[in-house]
Amino acid sequence: MQLITSITEMQQLADKTRNLGYKIGVVPTMGYLHEGHLSLIRLAKQNSDFVITTIFVNPTQFAPNEDFEQYPRDLNRDLAMCQAEEVDVVFAPETSAMYNSNFLTYVNVEKITSKLEGKFRPTHFRGVTTVVAKLFNITKPHIAVFGQKDAQQALVIKKMVKDLNFDIQILIGPTVRETDGLAMSSRNVYLKNDERKNATILYQSLKFAETEILNGETDIEKIKSTMEKMILEKKIFTIDYISFNDAETLDDLSIAHPNKSILISLAVRTGTVRLIDNIMVKR
Ligand code: PAF
After folding, report:
1. I want to staple 66 with a disulfide (CB 3.0 to 4.6 A). Which of 26, 62, 88, 186 is the partner?
2. Is the CB of 132 under 6 A from ligand 1?
3. Residue 260 lies in a domain
4. What is the per-residue pLDDT across 195-206, written as a single tens digit (0 to 9) for each?
């Protein structure tokens, strides 16, 4: 496995790899890898010949009041995990290489970025799409793999790829969960014992909503209000949102129609930590 930090070197190796006829798969990450990332790497390996994992904590997707500085980092541990998965290249650039002091260009997907996460993190997706576009131009992949855990991000990236004609196939890997249901996230390390224990209510509330819909309940407000009660009963969470949206357009839904895929997503805060999770349901 090769560790590359230089953008030019990465682009040259990507060109060489493509010229040899290999299919490149990229898995963009911000590091501090866990089983969820490893499952995406495995999906990339199944669908390509040459896997690049990028590790870059992207400053432009964090607002000034967010956790950019505190975001967990451990490159050596990440490298060992990538090596064990037989990743071909880890691309881990310096921030100054990705964003020089003269950086002026951003990629912005409209509309679908202003709801859900976008309401609470208005500059977040502009940072994500900008860095992902840059990483695509640097690693030159045929396929790119993202996680369903960040469902809105996955939709936004697919939209960017379609609208800007990136010749890249986007694959979305399922959310990987701890045995008690908590969605894996690098940010879970921030959780104190009590917060970690109670965080299982998030997936339980999503599963409750799924069961209600599969049993024929169509009144979304009713389901939502029970979910709120379940979460708030724990007394340690505040809720940013619980939302039911059309899984493709992200239009808000108030009725669960049969045959429509519904994205049920939520974001909560406990202490200094913000957690997101989601589930996709179709009756
Ligand atoms: O999902 C993430 O870890 C990040 O948003 C991504 C896609 C690597 C862009 O920085």
Report:
1. 62
2. yes
3. yes
4. 999 999 999 999
Can you tell me which atom of ligand 1 is nearest the CA of 54?
A: 8
Q: Looking at ligand 1, which atom is closest to the CA of residue 150?
A: 1
60 and 91 assigned to the same domain: yes
**Active-site annotation holds for 37:** yes
CATH of the domain at 200: 3.30.1300.10
- Does ligand 1 have an atom closer than 6 angstroms to the CB of 30? yes
Residue 77 belongs to some domain of the structure: yes
DSSP for 222-238, please give it: HHHHHHHHHHHTTSS-E
Q: Which helix or strand (DSSP H or E) is residue 163 part of?
A: helix 151-163
Q: For residue 178, is it within any domain?
A: no
- Is there a single domain that holds both residue 145 and residue 268? no
Helices (H), 23-94: 35-47, 75-84
How many domains would you assign to the chain? Answer: 2
Q: Which atom of ligand 1 is nearest to the CA of 157?
A: 7
Centre of ligand 1 to C-alpha 229, Å, is: 31
The predicted model scores a pTM of 0.97
Q: pLDDT by residue (tens digit) across 243-281?
A: 999 999 999 999 998 888 999 999 999 999 999 999 999
Q: Are 145 and 171 in contact (CB under 8 A)?
A: yes
Q: What six digits make up the tokens of 231?
A: 């979460």
Of the three residues 173, 202, 218, the one that is the final residue of a domain is 173
For the chain, percent of residues with pLDDT exceeding 70: 100
Q: Which residues of 260-269 are buried (b: 16+ CB within 10 A; e: fewer)?
A: eebbbbbbbe
In short, whether 28's Cβ falls inside 6 Å of ligand 1 is yes
